[in-house]
Design a protein that fits this description.
The protein has 82 residues and is mainly alpha-helical. The chain has helices at 4-7, 29-32, 38-62, 65-81. Helix content is 61%, strand content 0%.
């Protein structure tokens, strides 16, 4: 690996990017819109805090853990889309 001084071959101060360096953050919604969507934040918070309770209640209704997990996941996903 070379130093920045060694990489500046023409003396103008410009240095070629290091090919081994990690890339910076990719452009996208998170960078374009610095303010988070309050609905998305609320759904994500509810998902983290209430997942077990919602799943337990759904299992009691469906009496099937796999079906309950699918239903709860679909419900949270639908809340983010609608």
């Amino acid at each position: 690996m070379t130093s920045d001084r060694d990489a500046d071959t023409d003396g103008d101060g410009d240095v070629a990017p290091d090919p081994d360096a990690a890339p910076g953050p990719a452009p996208g919604p998170a960078r374009d819109n610095p303010e988070p969507d309050p609905v998305r934040v609320a759904v994500e918070d509810a998902h983290r805090r209430e997942w077990a309770s919602v799943l337990a209640a759904t299992v009691r209704v469906t009496r099937d853990l796999d079906l309950a997990e699918e239903c709860v996941q679909d419900a949270y996903a639908a809340a983010l889309v609608d």
